[in-house]
Amino acid sequence: xxxxxxxxxxxxxAGLVAAAEIADAGRRVVILDQEGENSLGGQAFWSxxxxxxxxxxxxxxxRIRDSRELALQDWLGSAGFDRPEDAWPRRWADAYVDFAAxxxxxxxxxxxxxxxxxxxxxxxxxxxxxxxxxxxxxxxITWGTGPGVLEPFLRRVREHxxxxxxELRFRHRVSRLIKTDGAxxxxxxxxxxxxxxxRGQKSGRTVTGEFELxxxxxxxxxGGIGGDFDLVRKNWPVDRLGLPPVTMVAGVPHHxxxxxxxxxxxxxxxxxxxxxxxxxxxxVKNWAPIWPQHGIRILPxxxxxxxxxxxxxxxxPCLPGFxxxxxxxxxxxxxxxxxxFVLTQxxxxxxxxxxxxxxxxDFTSKSWREVLKSRRGAGAPPxxxxxxxxxxxxxxxxxLADLVDAMNALAGEKLIDHDRLKAQIEARDxxxxxxxxxxxQVTAIRGxxxxxxxxxxxxxxPHKILDPANGPLIxxxxxxxxxxxxxxxxxxxxxxxxxxSGDPVPGLYAAGEVAGFGGGGxxxxxxxxxxxxxxxxxxxxxxxxxxxxx
Length: 550
Prior knowledge:
Blueprint: E1 4-9, H1 13-24, E2 29-33, E3 50-52, H2 57-61, H3 68-79, H4 87-101, H5 104-110, E4 139-141, H6 145-162, E5 166-170, E6 172-180, E7 183-192, E8 207-220, H7 229-234, H8 238-241, E9 249-250, H9 259-266, E10 271-272, E11 277-285, E12 295-299, E13 305-308, H10 324-333, E14 338-344, H11 345-351, E15 353-354, H12 361-365, H13 368-375, H14 382-390, E16 394-397, H15 400-411, H16 418-430, H17 440-448, H18 452-457, E17 473-485, E18 488-489, E19 496-498, E20 504-510, H19 531-549
Parallel strand pairs: 1-2, 1-8, 2-5, 8-20, 9-17
Antiparallel strand pairs: 3-4, 6-7, 7-8, 10-18, 11-12, 11-17, 12-15, 13-14, 14-17, 16-17, 19-20
Helix pairs in contact: 1-6, 1-19, 3-4
């Protein structure tokens, strides 16, 4: 006899959505997670809570003209689908854009979710209308950040748990998918020692027992590989991005380990696009780390000057907030795995934000008073000021000469020449004298301020970097930050995992990052941001609803 109608492997956002949808139909569900109960919600908890909506009320209030056609143009220009196995990812992309332009916002709003009224303009792209990037702002920050995204699904799951339809089993690590007559019929694995580790901290792996469970369907919703640097390097696309970085910082906890990919493959599932991944170039070491090698991403406005490790200014489209993977490739081609921002106090005050719920306590608290106090104060938001004061990657000096000396000291070698760096900054500063410019970044700054949201809270007025009135000067050393897996388990639009024949493996589903957020990689080569949490929600919903119908 089956122990449940469905087993969910992973208690992150995708797993919670799938479980809620299945239980809504009166089915019995078991959720398994190798971490403790305080980690329920997974990586989504730590997120900024950004969601990609198309033609939303928030956009329209800011006079942003968006459409399903424009969003699909941006998505396909960014994805660059070019492989035979991209057939299902392309269908997922079409379906997700329809969802984001259709019922997604109203469905989430009906569950109580709300959004900050200023829409963010993330990943602005490589310079062509038909190429990579968002043509308009689409990044909607959820009121409450990542915990605010999780809230309605946690509520639904706990209500079903109270009613006996959902059972939550923590510290249960799946190591094998059980098959009966060619169909996946359950899971087996180990019970891990109880853990007192706080959310995100590294927990123990001592085994205290074993378990085996049967069900009519198994949903793999175990996340990506970003917490395992060796696995990241193994799958690194050397042909496209060059050799992987020698040093990285981790944008996800250690339990984002990719174990279930190999386990599901052994049970007959296929993995596609394993070389497609999404790592950031603006990582800084967390001065108060939660997980091993913990890094935080700076969400920059467009004004910081970006230099490689030897002091050469990065070319367009390698500008702050424009083209993540082009910038990653350029940095690695220099033979170094870090780079530098050089900016002023005026820039950090208005433009710097840090990714994550814990770095945005004002948004996370849902307090308008705290948001206004934090964002409209005399300095940068308090978490940014804390990094400026305590973070080892931040340098603050009154003169460029002292700044360069400190940069070279932090790097451990004298790679940056003061006179050459000064000449590049002075050349840029001369472009500020006119309301037009040949400098692509200066033009981008002025263009950004044509959008009311950026002018109000995200883009500083153009000013000269070396003018002491705008100081002090700030340099920030930037590391490569691991984050998302864009490829994964190959699935159809019902989130059924496909086998080598292209047909579904009976009883086997996958949702969230482990499935490349849908299809085995619905982003293609590039992400438009706000599409990671959205992909977890959409693929988890598809899996849950198909299982409920079946």
